[in-house]
Amino acid sequence: xxxxxxxxxxxxxxxxxxxxxxxxxxxxxxxxxxxxxxxxxxxxxxxxxxxxxxxxxxxxxxxxxxxxxxxxxxx
Length: 75
Known about the structure:
The structure is a single chain. By secondary structure, this protein is of the alpha+beta class. Helix content is 17%, strand content 17%. It contains two helices and three strands. It has helices at residues 29-33, 53-60, and strands at residues 9-11, 15-19, 68-72. A three-stranded antiparallel β-sheet has the order 1-2-3, covered by helices on one side. A hairpin with a 3-residue loop joins strand 1 (9-11) and strand 2 (15-19). The longest helix has 8 residues, at 53-60. The chain is globular.
């Protein structure tokens, strides 16, 4: 039986946030700092509609393992 996997790219149109689960050390820095976006109890767990882009970028930069990254989308 195959385990279901989920896409780990999330976008709000302005940026795309990527998540690399194998790098994650589960410090929960993201959820503790911006729980409106990084939600540990639901799937998909990242909801980029929960805060403005600048706040999301600031929180992604605080990821201690580098499991979260972002890039600006070409518009």
